């Protein structure tokens, strides 16, 4: 069964589309410039491993984009918890000295994005309706 997209995206869906765009840009950077990304993060890593991370980011971007475009409220809501957990995990890894400090930038983006989606889900003003599911 094929789901059709709504004409206007709701505010929560727009925040998830923004997250998908961020994942796309970051994923492409990891995929196309693995040495530069590793250097920026202050890590030594095999380029193929950095590229695999980039591919995974692009896969997640595709999923986020699809469920946002189709106004899938349960997945939009679930993305808040997932992104907050990821941000917390990044912070804990840095605090435990298991990951470099620049990883905190990714934690910040995920945390702020998750908060924006949560606030949008609470808000009443949306461009398009979210289905009840």
Describe it.
The structure is a single chain. This protein is an all-alpha fold and 133 residues long. It has one domain. Helices cover 72% and strands 0% of the residues. The protein is built from five helices and no strands. The longest helix has 23 residues, at 47-69. Residues 1-5 have low confidence and may be disordered. Keywords: Membrane, Transmembrane, Transmembrane helix. This is Transmembrane protein. The chain crosses the membrane at residues 12-33, 48-64, 76-96.
Multimeric state: single chain
Shape: globular
* Count of DSSP strands: 0
Distance between the termini: 15 Å
Mean pLDDT: 90
Our estimate of the beta-strand percent is: under 5%
Task: Give the proportion of residues in helices.
Answer: over 70%
Low-pLDDT regions: 1-5
The structural domain count equals 1
Spell out the helices and strands N to C: HHHHH
Transmembrane segments: 12-33, 48-64, 76-96
Keywords: Membrane, Transmembrane, Transmembrane helix
Protein name: Transmembrane protein
């Amino acid at each position: 069964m094929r789901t059709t997209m709504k004409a206007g995206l709701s505010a929560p869906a727009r925040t998830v589309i923004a997250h998908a765009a961020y994942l796309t840009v970051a994923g492409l950077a990891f995929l196309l410039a693995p040495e530069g990304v590793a250097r920026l993060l202050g890590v030594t890593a095999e380029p193929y491993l950095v590229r695999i991370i980039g591919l995974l980011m692009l896969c997640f971007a595709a999923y986020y984009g699809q469920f946002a475009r189709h106004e899938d409220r349960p997945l939009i809501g679930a993305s808040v918890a997932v992104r907050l957990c990821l941000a917390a995990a990044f912070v804990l890894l840095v605090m435990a000295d298991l990951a470099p400090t620049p990883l905190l930038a990714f934690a910040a983006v995920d945390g702020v994005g998750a908060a924006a989606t949560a606030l949008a889900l609470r808000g009443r003003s949306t461009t398009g309706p979210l289905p009840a599911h």
